[in-house]
Design goal:
This is non-specific serine/threonine protein kinase. One of its GO terms (molecular function) is protein serine/threonine kinase activity. Belongs to the protein kinase superfamily. AGC Ser/Thr protein kinase family. Keywords: ATP-binding, Auxin signaling pathway, Developmental protein, Kinase, Nucleotide-binding, Serine/threonine-protein kinase, Transferase. The chain contains twelve helices and 13 strands. The chain is α+β, with helices and mostly antiparallel strands. Strand 4 and strand 5 form a beta hairpin. The C terminus is likely disordered.
Length: 399
């Protein structure tokens, strides 16, 4: 027993590099005899270098957010410690890579509709939880959607995330009638009665309990949906220009200030890229891409479908993407009631949200046992470097 430190880990190879640090594949040096040797992902950031670049706050925010999370599609922070001027975060290793690499392996470098729906549904649940915790993700892209050993997803990289207060609400409301659908899209705020007795939210790990308010509408019981939990941080506001160019929302580019609706824009771009193999507004350079995002109408490339059912699914997903990629954030689906609106869309009809982890993923990475059996090809460091105590390889570039 004792406090973990860098000298307890053996760094095997670098998995990836980001704006504020590197991620390494690692193992514990002296595991308990009889227990399987596990792989971990360790994110290492240089605090001194970040301080010079005035990005230290981003690393602190990521550590704080990771410490809050408790969700099957989000990372578990196993340990965090400092080593000299480095900060280290130890998390789960995802042997399946990311959705960008997975898409490259697909026929035509794009996912089938059913596969895209699966990954989009799990990503939606991860975003739903983040918003419930008052976290606006702001960096959704295929490279940040990792694939676990069992084939299910895990979002990564929270250094661009925005944290704010949110008050979850339970809403009971009347289903939309066809003649009211257009009106309800413009004004989806329910007519509220006096709130019932507040209850404490169960989504309060490692933070002060938040209050959940139950709101009812004055309608007949037989006309009601089941109660829905709405926890959208609609008051979150930032003017930071953050994100990846092809995924930036119009309100981020214009600098008018943005909130949680940026995550629903990036969710639409992600779904588009999974299906069509490219992002919807990509230009010949970054400047042209930003202009396209602001001014170019959304269009869909023609792709062949093999059945009438697949055609119907394509129509549904294009309708959802069109509602997600609305340039005015106030009119974007999800901007007021978050994931509740998106989960009710026809494209996700039939998805068992509660049991989605029981669904077999489109691809399941090979067993870790096979990775272990070929461990001789994994290390990219010399034996001297691997066995050296309390040292980070000097020849690795951190930024």
């Amino acid at each position: 027993k004792g406090r973990l430190g860098l000298d307890q880990f053996r760094l095997l190879r670098r998995l990836g590099s980001g704006d504020i640090g590197n991620v390494y594949l690692c193992q514990i040096r002296n595991p308990v005899v009889g227990l399987p040797q596990c792989f971990y992902a360790m994110k290492v950031v240089d605090r001194e270098a970040l301080a010079i670049r005035k990005k230290l706050q981003r690393a602190e925010m990521e550590k704080e957010i990771l410490g809050m999370l408790d969700h099957p599609f989000l990372p578990t922070l196993y340990a965090e410690f400092d080593a000299s001027h480095y900060s280290c975060l130890v998390m789960e290793f995802c042997p399946g890579g990311d959705l960008h690499a997975a898409r490259q392996r697909q026929p035509g470098k794009r996912f089938s509709i059913s596969s895209a729906k699966f990954y989009a549904a799990e990503t939606l649940l991860a975003l739903e939880y983040l918003h419930m915790m008052g976290v606006v993700y702001r960096d959704l892209k295929p490279e940040n959607v990792l694939v676990r050993e069992d084939g299910h997803i895990m979002l990564s990289d929270f250094d661009l995330s925005l944290k704010c207060d949110v008050v979850p609400k339970l809403i009971r409301h009347k289903p939309d009638h066809p003649e009211d659908s257009e009106k309800n899209e413009r004004d989806s705020t329910p007519s509220c009665a006096i709130p019932l007795q507040p209850v404490f939210s169960c989504f309060t790990k490692k933070k002060k309990a938040t209050v959940t308010t139950t709101i009812t509408t004055q309608v007949d019981v037989q006309d009601q949906y089941d109660p829905e939990l709405v926890a959208e941080p609609i008051n979150a506001r930032s003017k930071s220009f953050v994100g990846t160019h092809e995924y930036l929302a119009p309100e981020v580019i214009s600098g008018q200030g943005h909130g949680s609706a940026v995550d629903w824009w990036t969710f639409g771009v992600l779904l588009y890229e999974l299906l069509y193999g490219r992002t919807p507004f990509k230009g010949e350079n970054n400047e042209r891409t930003l202009i396209n995002i602001l001014k170019q109408p959304l269009s869909f490339p023609r792709i062949g479908v093999s059945s009438s059912k697949e055609y119907e699914e394509m129509v549904k997903v294009q309708d959802l993407i069109s509602k997600l990629l609305v340039k005015n954030p106030k009119k974007r689906i999800g901007s007021l009631k978050g994931s509740v609106e998106i989960k009710r869309h026809e494209f996700f009809k039939g998805v068992n949200w509660a049991l989605i982890r029981s669904v077999r993923p489109p691809e399941v990475p090979r067993d870790l046992q096979k990775v272990r059996s070929t461990r001789t090809i994994l290390p990219k460091l010399s034996k001297k470097e691997r066995d050296a105590p309390y040292q980070i390889p000097h020849h690795f570039d951190y930024f």
